[in-house]
Amino acid sequence: MSDLVLVAVTLVRDTLPNVHRFVEGNLGAGIDHLVVVLDGPAADVEAHLEGHPQVTTIVADDRWWGGERVATLNGRQRVVANLVRAAAADAGLVDWLFFVDGDEIALVDRQVLADVPADFDAVRLRPLEAVAGGGDLFKRLLTRPELRRLKRLGLVEKANNARYFHGHVSGKVGVRPAADVRLGVHAAELPNGEKVPAYEHPALRHLHHESPTLSEFDRKWTALAASGPPPGMRERRAEILQAFIALTAEPDPARRDVVVRELYDVHVAEDVAGLEAAGVLERIDVRALPPTSTPLGARRRTALEAAIHGQEARPRAEFLPLRPGTAPPA
Fold first, then answer.
1. Which residues touch 143 (CB under 8 Å, ≥6 apart)?
2. CA distances (Å), 19 to each of 13, 27, 49, 104, 192, in order?
3. Global pTM exceeds 0.70
4. Could you give the CA distance from residue 151 to residue 145 in angstroms, rounded to a whole number?
5. What does the DSSP assignment read for 115-161?
6. Whole-number Å distance between alpha carbons of 224 and 244
7. Does any domain span residue 48?
8. Taking 50 as the threshold, does the pLDDT of residue 327 lie above it?
9. Kind of pairing between the strands at 33-38 and 55-59
10. What are phi and psi of 92, to 5 degrees?
11. Which of 46, 147, 242, 248 has the fewest other C-beta atoms within 10 Å?
12. Distance between CA atoms of residues 235 and 9, nearest Å
């Protein structure tokens, strides 16, 4: 087994059960240490994570931002991801750093990561999306012939993965922290925002629990509607977000529930039995994966956390892509 050190960072505002799933899932799937940045105070989550030997918790409240809180969710994600990336580079003990959302679990093969060619400073994790109402069943990205077959069966409206998946199809990335390559939300970038090539391999994937149930659909989109200025989204997802923003003004809870159910039925609910019969799903139980992660140990964890605290003194804007024509900080 490779002796690489793998760390993942996330910015999360979620329920305690979901955060527990995120932590245990990622550690069970091969990540050695997690940096969980809470997008605001969450006493129950803080208490649950306190003392966990493989989790560093940061509360990104108003004091942490110091008057520099970024309005957009994507911007806040970039800041926390690259603050931790800079810290990992300073500490010099992390081989690969991944940015994943709170509803995602990185599935990585350590030996594949050890064998990534030296001229690649980034890797891509391809998504597997949870099937709505399907438990441990996940959708993988399909080939054009597979998509056309699903369309003929009436299981997908259009023969493309962007309509087959409810969430993103571009996946997530990991970077070598020592390189001057930054973590974007879905891509690795140079300091000026230019995308850099990412190594790909079938054994580098991640699970995305994108609205797997009605209640999670409601929770996710309600949180997104309150997260700041709307991010750029595909047409269907933008339609859902605008509907949830409009629902913030709905005074009748019963009426709101009806609208949410309608949105879920139209945009998310799918034929689980039909997809399974078509042979395009994978059943993945992360609890059954063989353990491969190794805790950092007290000395290395202390070094990483000290480096993070050192980076927290920097202006938050330094962790965002540079504006065109702007020189990098000295």
1. none
2. 9, 12, 9, 10, 33
3. yes
4. 10
5. TS-TT--EEEEEEEEEPTT-TTEEEE---HHHHHHHHHTTS-SSSSH
6. 9
7. yes
8. no
9. parallel
10. 70, 30
11. 248
12. 29
Q: Is 69 exposed, middle or buried (0-12, 13-18, 19+ CB in 10 A)?
A: middle
Tell me the CB-side half-sphere exposure of residue 291, using CA atoms within 13 A: 6
Q: Considering only CA atoms, which of 115, 73, 75 is closest in space to residue 96?
A: 115
Question: Do 165 and 257 have their domain in common?
Answer: no
- Kindly state whether residues 296 and 159 are assigned to the same domain: yes
Residue 315: Cβ-neighbour burial (10 angstroms; 0-12, 13-18, 19+): exposed
Residue at token pair 């306190």: 50
Indicate if 77 and 181 belong to the same structural domain. Answer: yes
- Res. 179: pLDDT tops 90: no
Number of structural domains, the chain?
Answer: 2
Tell me how far apart the alpha carbons of residues 148 and 5 are, in angstroms, rounded to a whole number.
41
For residue 322, which phi and psi values (nearest 5 degrees)?
A: -70, 145
Q: What domain range includes position 70? A: 6-211+276-319
pLDDT range class, residue 230, cuts 50, 70, 90: confident
148 and 257 in a single domain? The answer is: no
The CA distance from 196 to 122, in Å, is 8
DSSP class of 281? E
* Helix (H/G/I), strand (E/B), else coil: 93: coil
**Separation between Cα atoms, residue 202 and residue 126, nearest integer Å:** 8
